[in-house]
Amino acid sequence: MNATVPGIISALVLGLIIGAAGRLALPGERHIPIWLTIVVGIIAAIVGTLIANALGVGDTRGIDWIELIIQIALAAGGVSVAAGLCTRKRVH
């Protein structure tokens, strides 16, 4: 990963997209801030890429659908955990 301005901007955009996709994959409404969705999306994108590379499906011709599915699944799990933590803090 390059720590350049375009690299950081692309990570934020990818995090937003993956986080939003993970959020949409879950039923019901999630009450978490957008910044947390982006952070979860960035982490899911990085971990999903690592998992896809470990499985040997991280670099294929065209769109890496398996990698994308892994990333969205991780984002959905992360958003679900984050929403649970945010809701629990508000209730208490």
Low-confidence stretches: none
Number of helices: 3
What's the count of strands? 0
Rg, alpha carbons: 14 Å
The N- and C-terminal alpha carbons lie at a distance of 40 Å
Mean pLDDT: 81
Summarize the amount of helix as a percent range: over 70%
Main structural class: mainly alpha
How does the major sheet shape up?
none
Write down the secondary-structure element order: HHH
- What is the 3D shape? globular
| β-sheet strand percentage | under 5%
List keywords for this structure.
3 helices, single chain, mainly alpha, globular, 92 residues
Topology of this structure?
Blueprint: H1 5-24, H2 34-55, H3 65-91
Helix pairs in contact: 1-2, 1-3, 2-3
Description:
By secondary structure, this protein is mainly alpha-helical. It has a domain at 33-92. It has 3 helices and no strands. It is globular and about 40 Å long.
Brief digest:
The chain is mainly alpha-helical and 92 residues long.
